[in-house]
Amino acid sequence: MEKFIGAWTARHGATRDRLLPLLHAMQEDVGYIDDAWVPVIAKALNLSRADVHGVVTFYHDFRRVAPGRHVVKLCRAESCQARGGAAIEAAAAKLLGVAMGDTRADGQVALEPVYCMGLCAIGPNALVDGRPVARIDAAALERIALEVAA
Ligand code: FES
Predict the structure, then answer these.
(1) What is the pLDDT of the chain when averaged over all its residues?
(2) Total domain count for the chain?
(3) Per-residue pLDDT, 129
(4) Does residue 64 fall inside a structural domain?
(5) Rounded distance, CA 87 to CA 17, Å?
């Protein structure tokens, strides 16, 4: 990862304001930000470890462990919650065999929260491997379960 960080900062700069773009690039490249990389990032951008750790843990979108092969995100924001989001979340966890915020033991699927996708009028909504899926109901969950089983 040091090589990746070195190449990235050489190309995009090593100033403090590069932290978020670097974290996004790392997550895009390997899927998560390992805690072991925090000191390397801090040194590269002349930040404290606490600065980097604070940013990684503040934003829900940064994963700190390797994701599942498929990632299902369910919207937990107000409009989707008002449309039955909590029940959908419980059903999804049971159907997919993984608790919210976890990756299933076989690594096949992770279930994660997302906070509003801008599709509030057609919720409850999900993102399946980055693809928006609207009006989630029991049938939609069955289709998602089949999709992520592959
Ligand atoms: S509240 Fe779920 S998409 Fe906006």
Answers:
(1) 94
(2) 2
(3) 93
(4) no
(5) 40
